[in-house]
Amino acid sequence: MSELQQTNVDGTLENLADKINAEHRACDAALRSGLAHALKAGELLVEAKTHTRHGEWGNPLMGLPAHRDPGRGLRGEGVIAGA
After folding, report:
1. Rounded to whole angstroms, how far apart are CA atoms 75 and 83?
2. How many domains does the chain have?
3. Owning domain of residue 21
């Protein structure tokens, strides 16, 4: 490979490395943001639970999209918040 071709390959690899690192940083930020939102949802669930009597816990939550989807749910957020 000529010196010119090697320079182009190296420049391309550096460019790709910069893009890969940028995507990795964006992914990390999104994960941290998601965890922060899950923690806040859990804190709100803990607060909501203090406003319900025994046996009534599920009723106010039935309208929440995450509660209606059996594959998801609010249990994870409650666990993160220590509920």
Report:
1. 9
2. 1
3. 3-81
